[in-house]
Structures are given as C-alpha cells and as structure tokens.
From TrEMBL:
Membrane topology: Multi-pass membrane protein
Protein name: Mitochondrial 2-oxoglutarate/malate carrier protein
Listed InterPro entries: MCP (IPR002067), MCP_dom_sf (IPR023395), MCP_transmembrane (IPR018108), Mito_Metabolite_Transporter (IPR050391)
Family named by the database record: Belongs to the mitochondrial carrier (TC 2.A.29) family.
One Pfam family named in its UniProt record: Mito_carr
Length: 342
C-alpha cells in the first residue's frame, strides 16, 4: 500500500473523528432545545429532506395496515368463496353467511383473522409502495406540468396510479402469496395442513420447500389486478366527483358517494384477476410434482371450461364490501396522517 493511500485514509479517519466530536458536542444543546420546545423540534425533524421523502411511504403503509385490521375477516371470507368448488361447475353454491358459519363452527371467531400477520406485512410493503410511489410520481409530474405552464391532467394521474399500483403489487407479491396460503390452509384435510405459525414461518417454508421464485407465483394477475383496481378507483372516483359537484350533497357526502362508485368499478375490473391470482397462489404440487395450473392463461381457460364464466365473479358482493371500505379507510387515515405531519 502506497504512502499516499495511507495518508488519505488517515485524513478521512481524522475527518470522521472530528465530525463525531462535533455531533457529540452539539447533542446536549440540541436535546436542551428539543426539551424546551418539543413541538418545534418535531416540526424541524419532519421537515428534513429525508423525512419529507419518506413520509408518503410511511403514512401510506400505516393507513393500509389500519384498514386491513378492520377488513381482514371480509377478506378471509372472500378467499374461501373463491376457492370453494374448485374444478366443479355444478354443486352447492356457498354464500358469505354459510362460509362465515362454517369457519366459526370449525374453530372460533378469531379464525376469521387467519393470515392477519401476512395481511399487515402485505400492506406494509404494497400500500407503502403504492401510495409512496404515487405521491412521488405526482410531485414529479406536477413540477413538469408547471414548468410547461399547464395543469396536470387526468391521463397523467391515471398513468401515475397504474404505474405505482403495478410496481407495488410486484414488490408485495410474496406477502400476498403467504396470505392466500394461510387463509386457504383450513380447507385442506387436517393431515395435509401446513399450520403456519405466522407470515415469517409461511415465507420460510415456501422458500425452503418450493424455491424462492415460488414467492412470485401469481405475480402476473396480481400486477394486472392492481393496475385494474387503481384505474377503476382513479377514473371513476374523478368522474363521480365531477358529476356530483353541482348536486345538493355536501362535500363529505360527495366524497363518500364517489368512493362507493369507484369501489364498484374497481371491484368489477379487478375481481377476475384477483380470482385467478388466488387460485394460482393457493395451488400446491401434486404427488407427481405437477401443478394444477401452468400459469395465468391456463388457469383462465380451465376455470372458464370447467366452472363457467360466472365463476370469475363469485363473491362479488363480498369483494366489493372488502374493496370499498378498505379504500375509504386507507384514504381517510392517510389524509389525517398527512395533515398532522405537514
């Protein structure tokens, strides 16, 4: 090692030591200032460049997790409805009430919260990324529009929502897969159940037994579903608010009504992809090592042929009841968090 390199290393070390000493010397003053005016210290911290960039992601994830805690039982029932009667066109048609009754009869009320840890992890990843990316994209697009002397348009909002939804769905697919596995485990015979202890156990066992790439099973319909859902929410929420602008409804009532309309169309566009995603993520290998479905299009063709086209919309009411309130709770909590962290 040459002497010049050694000298450079020594300089860097001395600079680091001096910087550390400076921080240590300033710390008591900073702590004293914070104790005297904690509100100002909090505002200063929240307005650092790092926190301004991180807050959209943090607030989005917290809002999604709060909504999931409220909606998890409905999601559990939705998944069980989609998996009932797999491969059979005729037979008994389960209802949300009958599925709920069966779950409670087989265990206890808290079984409706099976997979909550995976649901929370999914929101911590998916919604954090979705709302964070969307906010980041919107700021960039707004800045570009202002530089051109115009206002940002609906097409740009839709593009930001579609892109953010697709990217976030791909990143969050492993947690989504673990959620489906945990929720569908109770449908198997007791001897074949995995009895996952939690989302961490599910992810590790899936990786160990099936390979790490299996964590992205159903990624294609998951991404398409997220993009369809975001498109439905953005396009029809915007249109509904425009139509209700001159109505006798107040601002809050207009927002709630528009959210309900957006939730319907988001559910209508995304449910078939959600259905296929659930089937692909639930499947496990047969004794001969093969899977029931080879992929997205194979699953679509088999369900269409063996179970009929209406099977894709089984549980629409439950799905809508899950999508609309979840979106509303997420947006309300996110708005509140954004307000208190301004």
């Amino acid at each position: 090692m040459s002497s010049s390199v050694v000298e450079a290393a020594k300089r860097k070390a001395n600079e680091a030591v001096n910087a550390a000493k400076g921080v240590a010397e300033d710390a008591p003053a900073a702590m004293q200032k914070a104790s005297e005016n904690p509100q100002q210290a909090t505002r200063d911290f929240l307005h650092t460049p790092f926190m301004r960039a991180a807050l959209p992601f943090v607030n989005g994830g917290a809002a999604g997790m709060a909504a999931t805690t409220c909606i998890q039982p409905i999601d559990m029932i939705k998944v069980r409805l989609q998996l009932a009667g797999e491969g059979v066109k005729t037979g008994p048609k389960p209802t949300p009430l009958s599925v709920t009754r069966d779950i409670i009869a087989a265990g206890k009320v808290m079984d409706l919260y099976t997979g909550l840890s995976a649901g929370l992890l999914r929101q911590a990843v998916y919604t954090t990324a979705r709302l964070g990316f969307f906010d980041t994209f919107m700021k960039s697009l707004s800045a570009s529009a202002e530089a051109d002397g115009r206002r940002i348009g609906f097409k740009e909002r839709a593009a930001a929502g579609l892109t953010a939804g697709g990217l976030a769905a791909f990143v969050g697919n492993p947690a989504d897969l673990a959620l489906i596995r945990m929720q569908s485990d109770g449908l198997k015979p007791k001897a074949e159940r995995a009895n996952y202890k939690g989302v961490g156990d599910a992810l590790m066992r899936i990786t160990k037994n099936e390979g790490i790439t299996r964590l992205w099973a159903g990624a294609t319909p998951t991404v398409i579903r997220a993009m369809a859902l975001n498109f439905g929410q953005l396009a029809f929420f915007s249109e509904a608010k425009a139509q209700l602008k001159d109505s006798s409804l107040g601002p809050r009532a207009q927002t709630l009504t528009a959210s309900a309309v957006a939730g319907f169309f988001a559910s209508f566009f995304s449910l078939p992809f959600d259905f296929i995603k659930t089937r692909l993520q639930k499947q496990s290998r047969k004794p001969d090592g093969t899977l029931p479905y080879k992929g997205f299009f194979d699953c679509f063709q088999k369900v269409l042929r063996e179970e009929g086209p209406l099977r894709f919309y089984r549980g629409f009411g439950t799905y809508y009841v899950r999508i609309a309130p979840h979106a509303m709770v997420t947006l309300i909590v996110a708005d509140y968090l954004n307000f208190i962290t301004k």
